[in-house]
Protein backbone atom coordinates (compact mmCIF):
# COMPACT_ATOMS: atom_id res chain seq x y z
CA UNK A 1 0.00 0.00 0.00
CA UNK A 2 1.38 3.38 -1.02
CA UNK A 3 1.67 6.50 1.13
CA UNK A 4 -1.34 8.11 -0.53
CA UNK A 5 -3.47 5.00 -0.05
CA UNK A 6 -2.48 4.87 3.63
CA UNK A 7 -3.40 8.51 4.01
CA UNK A 8 -6.78 7.93 2.42
CA UNK A 9 -7.48 5.23 4.97
CA UNK A 10 -6.70 7.38 7.98
CA UNK A 11 -9.00 9.75 9.83
CA UNK A 12 -6.89 12.61 8.62
CA UNK A 13 -7.94 12.54 4.98
CA UNK A 14 -6.35 14.37 2.07
CA UNK A 15 -9.13 16.95 2.25
CA UNK A 16 -8.44 17.50 5.93
CA UNK A 17 -4.72 17.85 5.27
CA UNK A 18 -5.38 20.37 2.49
CA UNK A 19 -7.71 22.29 4.80
CA UNK A 20 -4.99 22.38 7.47
CA UNK A 21 -2.55 23.74 4.90
CA UNK A 22 -5.08 26.36 3.79
CA UNK A 23 -5.47 27.46 7.41
CA UNK A 24 -1.69 27.84 7.64
CA UNK A 25 -1.74 30.05 4.54
CA UNK A 26 -4.50 32.16 6.07
CA UNK A 27 -2.28 32.91 9.07
CA UNK A 28 0.66 33.64 6.76
CA UNK A 29 2.65 30.48 7.51
CA UNK A 30 3.54 29.21 4.05
CA UNK A 31 6.36 27.05 5.39
CA UNK A 32 3.88 25.07 7.49
CA UNK A 33 1.62 24.73 4.46
CA UNK A 34 4.53 23.53 2.31
CA UNK A 35 5.35 20.88 4.90
CA UNK A 36 1.83 19.52 4.43
CA UNK A 37 1.67 19.91 0.66
CA UNK A 38 5.09 18.32 0.10
CA UNK A 39 4.19 14.67 0.83
CA UNK A 40 0.84 15.09 -0.92
CA UNK A 41 2.48 16.55 -4.02
CA UNK A 42 5.08 13.76 -4.15
CA UNK A 43 2.23 11.27 -3.81
CA UNK A 44 0.50 12.78 -6.85
CA UNK A 45 -2.18 15.13 -5.49
CA UNK A 46 -2.55 17.68 -8.32
CA UNK A 47 -3.74 20.63 -6.23
CA UNK A 48 -0.86 20.18 -3.80
CA UNK A 49 1.51 20.11 -6.77
CA UNK A 50 -0.03 23.36 -7.97
CA UNK A 51 0.30 24.96 -4.57
CA UNK A 52 3.99 24.09 -4.29
CA UNK A 53 4.57 25.35 -7.82
CA UNK A 54 2.79 28.60 -7.02
CA UNK A 55 4.96 29.08 -3.92
CA UNK A 56 8.12 28.64 -5.97
CA UNK A 57 6.76 31.03 -8.58
CA UNK A 58 5.94 33.73 -6.04
CA UNK A 59 8.60 33.09 -3.40
CA UNK A 60 6.10 32.20 -0.68
CA UNK A 61 7.82 30.30 2.12
CA UNK A 62 10.70 29.41 -0.21
CA UNK A 63 13.13 31.20 -2.49
CA UNK A 64 11.69 31.96 -5.89
CA UNK A 65 12.71 29.25 -8.34
CA UNK A 66 11.20 29.43 -11.83
CA UNK A 67 12.48 25.97 -12.79
CA UNK A 68 10.86 24.27 -9.79
CA UNK A 69 7.69 26.30 -10.31
CA UNK A 70 7.56 25.04 -13.90
CA UNK A 71 8.19 21.45 -12.81
CA UNK A 72 5.44 21.32 -10.22
CA UNK A 73 2.89 23.31 -12.19
CA UNK A 74 3.47 21.11 -15.22
CA UNK A 75 2.74 18.01 -13.14
CA UNK A 76 -0.43 19.60 -11.79
CA UNK A 77 -1.60 20.83 -15.19
CA UNK A 78 -0.92 17.50 -16.88
CA UNK A 79 -2.99 15.81 -14.16
CA UNK A 80 -5.89 18.06 -15.18
CA UNK A 81 -6.01 20.48 -12.26
CA UNK A 82 -7.56 23.72 -13.58
CA UNK A 83 -5.69 25.95 -11.13
CA UNK A 84 -2.44 24.25 -12.13
CA UNK A 85 -3.30 24.81 -15.78
CA UNK A 86 -4.04 28.48 -15.10
CA UNK A 87 -0.84 29.04 -13.14
CA UNK A 88 1.25 27.21 -15.74
CA UNK A 89 -0.39 29.39 -18.39
CA UNK A 90 0.79 32.45 -16.47
CA UNK A 91 4.41 31.20 -16.63
CA UNK A 92 4.15 30.80 -20.40
CA UNK A 93 2.45 34.19 -20.74
CA UNK A 94 5.18 35.95 -18.74
CA UNK A 95 8.06 33.79 -19.98
CA UNK A 96 9.16 32.81 -16.49
CA UNK A 97 11.24 29.63 -16.46
CA UNK A 98 10.09 28.84 -19.98
CA UNK A 99 10.09 30.51 -23.37
CA UNK A 100 7.33 33.10 -23.65
CA UNK A 101 4.41 31.82 -25.70
CA UNK A 102 1.00 33.44 -26.03
CA UNK A 103 -0.21 30.39 -27.93
CA UNK A 104 0.71 27.96 -25.14
CA UNK A 105 -0.62 30.31 -22.49
CA UNK A 106 -3.92 30.57 -24.35
CA UNK A 107 -4.13 26.79 -24.77
CA UNK A 108 -3.68 26.26 -21.04
CA UNK A 109 -6.03 29.07 -20.08
CA UNK A 110 -8.65 27.52 -22.33
CA UNK A 111 -8.23 24.10 -20.68
CA UNK A 112 -8.77 25.68 -17.26
CA UNK A 113 -11.62 27.87 -18.52
CA UNK A 114 -13.44 24.86 -19.91
CA UNK A 115 -13.33 23.34 -16.41
CA UNK A 116 -15.03 26.43 -15.00
CA UNK A 117 -12.01 28.27 -13.57
CA UNK A 118 -13.23 31.88 -13.54
CA UNK A 119 -9.82 33.65 -13.40
CA UNK A 120 -8.74 31.59 -16.42
CA UNK A 121 -11.95 32.51 -18.23
CA UNK A 122 -11.21 36.17 -17.51
CA UNK A 123 -7.62 35.96 -18.76
CA UNK A 124 -8.61 33.97 -21.85
CA UNK A 125 -11.22 36.59 -22.70
CA UNK A 126 -8.63 39.36 -22.36
CA UNK A 127 -6.09 37.53 -24.53
CA UNK A 128 -8.66 36.83 -27.24
CA UNK A 129 -9.49 40.53 -27.43
CA UNK A 130 -5.92 41.79 -27.18
CA UNK A 131 -4.03 39.28 -29.31
CA UNK A 132 -6.75 37.56 -31.32
CA UNK A 133 -8.58 38.39 -34.52
CA UNK A 134 -12.04 39.84 -35.07
CA UNK A 135 -13.31 36.28 -35.41
CA UNK A 136 -12.24 35.64 -31.80
CA UNK A 137 -14.52 38.33 -30.38
CA UNK A 138 -17.59 36.09 -29.88
CA UNK A 139 -15.49 33.65 -27.84
CA UNK A 140 -13.98 36.53 -25.88
CA UNK A 141 -17.50 37.77 -25.15
CA UNK A 142 -18.62 34.30 -24.04
CA UNK A 143 -15.71 33.80 -21.63
CA UNK A 144 -16.04 37.31 -20.22
CA UNK A 145 -19.69 36.60 -19.54
CA UNK A 146 -18.89 33.36 -17.74
CA UNK A 147 -16.21 35.03 -15.61
CA UNK A 148 -18.43 38.02 -14.85
CA UNK A 149 -21.25 35.79 -13.67
CA UNK A 150 -18.73 34.07 -11.40
CA UNK A 151 -17.94 37.44 -9.84
CA UNK A 152 -14.76 38.50 -11.67
CA UNK A 153 -14.93 42.31 -11.68
CA UNK A 154 -12.43 42.78 -14.53
CA UNK A 155 -14.68 40.76 -16.83
CA UNK A 156 -17.65 42.92 -15.89
CA UNK A 157 -15.62 45.95 -16.96
CA UNK A 158 -14.58 44.19 -20.17
CA UNK A 159 -18.20 43.40 -21.02
CA UNK A 160 -18.96 47.08 -20.67
CA UNK A 161 -16.14 47.85 -23.12
CA UNK A 162 -17.36 45.17 -25.52
CA UNK A 163 -20.88 46.62 -25.59
CA UNK A 164 -19.64 50.22 -25.73
CA UNK A 165 -17.15 49.62 -28.56
CA UNK A 166 -19.30 47.07 -30.44
CA UNK A 167 -16.62 44.37 -30.31
CA UNK A 168 -18.49 41.51 -31.94
CA UNK A 169 -21.87 42.71 -30.64
CA UNK A 170 -24.24 45.57 -31.41
CA UNK A 171 -23.27 48.80 -29.69
CA UNK A 172 -25.37 49.27 -26.56
CA UNK A 173 -24.33 52.18 -24.29
CA UNK A 174 -27.03 51.36 -21.73
CA UNK A 175 -25.86 47.77 -21.35
CA UNK A 176 -22.26 48.99 -21.20
CA UNK A 177 -23.17 51.33 -18.34
CA UNK A 178 -24.96 48.52 -16.52
CA UNK A 179 -21.85 46.31 -16.67
CA UNK A 180 -19.64 49.18 -15.52
CA UNK A 181 -21.96 49.71 -12.57
CA UNK A 182 -21.61 46.04 -11.66
CA UNK A 183 -17.84 46.18 -12.08
CA UNK A 184 -17.57 49.32 -9.97
CA UNK A 185 -19.70 47.77 -7.24
CA UNK A 186 -17.39 44.74 -7.33
CA UNK A 187 -14.38 46.99 -6.72
CA UNK A 188 -12.83 47.47 -10.16
CA UNK A 189 -11.32 50.94 -10.50
CA UNK A 190 -11.41 50.88 -14.32
CA UNK A 191 -15.13 50.13 -14.22
CA UNK A 192 -15.61 53.12 -11.94
CA UNK A 193 -13.64 55.31 -14.36
CA UNK A 194 -15.66 54.21 -17.38
CA UNK A 195 -18.90 54.60 -15.46
CA UNK A 196 -17.80 58.12 -14.54
CA UNK A 197 -17.13 58.90 -18.19
CA UNK A 198 -20.54 57.54 -19.20
CA UNK A 199 -22.26 59.60 -16.50
CA UNK A 200 -20.33 62.70 -17.57
CA UNK A 201 -21.40 62.30 -21.20
CA UNK A 202 -24.84 60.86 -20.53
CA UNK A 203 -24.10 57.75 -22.59
CA UNK A 204 -26.51 55.00 -21.67
CA UNK A 205 -27.13 56.50 -18.25
CA UNK A 206 -28.42 59.78 -16.79
CA UNK A 207 -26.02 62.67 -17.20
CA UNK A 208 -24.73 64.02 -13.89
CA UNK A 209 -21.49 66.01 -13.77
CA UNK A 210 -21.27 65.98 -9.97
CA UNK A 211 -21.61 62.21 -9.77
CA UNK A 212 -19.18 61.81 -12.66
CA UNK A 213 -16.55 63.86 -10.85
CA UNK A 214 -16.91 61.76 -7.71
CA UNK A 215 -16.62 58.51 -9.67
CA UNK A 216 -13.63 59.66 -11.71
CA UNK A 217 -11.81 61.05 -8.68
CA UNK A 218 -12.30 57.82 -6.77
CA UNK A 219 -11.23 55.76 -9.78
CA UNK A 220 -7.99 57.69 -10.19
CA UNK A 221 -7.27 57.43 -6.47
CA UNK A 222 -7.80 53.68 -6.71
CA UNK A 223 -5.25 53.38 -9.50
CA UNK A 224 -7.19 53.58 -12.75
CA UNK A 225 -5.35 55.28 -15.58
CA UNK A 226 -8.61 55.62 -17.51
CA UNK A 227 -9.98 58.39 -15.33
CA UNK A 228 -7.46 61.15 -16.07
CA UNK A 229 -8.66 62.07 -19.60
CA UNK A 230 -12.13 62.88 -18.25
CA UNK A 231 -11.31 64.55 -14.94
CA UNK A 232 -10.74 68.09 -16.21
CA UNK A 233 -14.00 68.10 -18.17
CA UNK A 234 -15.89 66.60 -15.22
CA UNK A 235 -14.49 69.24 -12.85
CA UNK A 236 -15.45 72.05 -15.22
CA UNK A 237 -18.94 70.64 -15.82
CA UNK A 238 -19.52 70.14 -12.09
CA UNK A 239 -18.40 73.71 -11.37
CA UNK A 240 -20.80 75.08 -13.98
CA UNK A 241 -23.63 73.22 -12.34
CA UNK A 242 -23.04 74.79 -8.93
CA UNK A 243 -25.39 77.67 -8.19
CA UNK A 244 -23.65 81.04 -7.43
- Percentage beta strand: under 5%
* Rg estimate, integer Å: 22 Å
Number of helices: 14
Question: What is the fold-level CATH name, i.e. the topology of one domain?
Answer: Serine Threonine Protein Phosphatase 5, Tetratricopeptide repeat
What is the average per-residue confidence, as pLDDT, rounded to a whole number?
Answer: 93
| Number of DSSP strand runs | 0
Main β sheet profile: none
> Percentage of helical residues?
over 70%
What would you say the CATH architecture of one domain is? Alpha Horseshoe
At the first level of CATH, the class of one domain is Mainly Alpha
Written account of the structure:
- There is one protein chain.
- The chain has 244 residues and is mainly alpha-helical.
- It has a domain at 1-114: Tetratricopeptide repeat domain (Serine Threonine Protein Phosphatase 5, Tetratricopeptide repeat, Alpha Horseshoe), CATH 1.25.40.
- 73% of the residues lie in helices and 0% in strands.
- The protein contains 14 helices and no strands.
- The protein is elongated.
- The mean pLDDT is 93.
Could you give a short description of this structure?
With 244 residues, the chain is an all-alpha fold. It has helices at residues 3-9, 14-26, 30-42, 46-58, 66-78, 82-94, 102-114, 118-131, 137-149, 153-165, 173-185, 189-201, 209-221, 228-240.
Keywords:
14 helices, mainly alpha, 244 residues, single chain, Serine Threonine Protein Phosphatase 5, Tetratricopeptide repeat
What topology emerges from the helices and strands here?
Blueprint: H1 3-9, H2 14-26, H3 30-42, H4 46-58, H5 66-78, H6 82-94, H7 102-114, H8 118-131, H9 137-149, H10 153-165, H11 173-185, H12 189-201, H13 209-221, H14 228-240
Amino acid sequence: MGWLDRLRGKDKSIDAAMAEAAAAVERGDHQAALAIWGPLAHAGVPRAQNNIGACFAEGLGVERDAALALRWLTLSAEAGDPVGQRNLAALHFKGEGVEQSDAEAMRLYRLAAEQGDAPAQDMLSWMLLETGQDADRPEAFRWAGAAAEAGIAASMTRLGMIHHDALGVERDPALAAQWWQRGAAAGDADAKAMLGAAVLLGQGIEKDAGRALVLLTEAEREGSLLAAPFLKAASAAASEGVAP
